[in-house]
Amino acid sequence: MSTPIPNPVLAITTLLQDSGVVPDVIPAALGFRPSVFFSPVYRKTDANAVLGTKLSKDHTQDEPALRIVRSEDDEIDEAGKEKSYTLVLTDPDAPSKKEPKFAQWRHWVVCFSPLEMHVRSRGRIILTCDPVS
């Protein structure tokens, strides 16, 4: 059993900064604050893509299923019904940190509206899953 994270927004923001996703992918000036948490699960291998962990190519060849959790701060009101969310699965330092010539390689892009998150676990796929090579 895993230990609950006391403040998931702070924990994820810190991981994004420590890994260089902020500012390399998300400009620091945006003041990014996550309000929805996506957890990709690769069904064939039962591998969970948890931020900050590494998964082998063998575990990530197929399109993942998504677990979606809204933070307590993400309340849906009448104005919020028009909000949409985008999940972008990238490799921020492809093929390696020492030689990131393909940095920000997009493997998968999926868009969700708030209501879709209650109805189904898949959003509209914008860019199909491109397995790691």
TrEMBL record:
Coiled-coil ranges from the UniProt annotation: none
Superkingdom in the source lineage: Eukaryota
Pfam families given in the database record: PBP
InterPro entries the UniProt entry points to: PEBP (IPR008914), PEBP-like_sf (IPR036610), PEBP_euk (IPR035810), Phosphatidylethanolamine-bd_CS (IPR001858)
PANTHER family the record matches: PHOSPHATIDYLETHANOLAMINE-BINDING PROTEIN (PTHR11362), PHOSPHATIDYLETHANOLAMINE-BINDING PROTEIN 4 (PTHR11362:SF82)
Family the entry assigns: Belongs to the phosphatidylethanolamine-binding protein family.
Protein name: PEBP-like protein
Species of the source: Coprinellus micaceus (Glistening ink-cap mushroom)
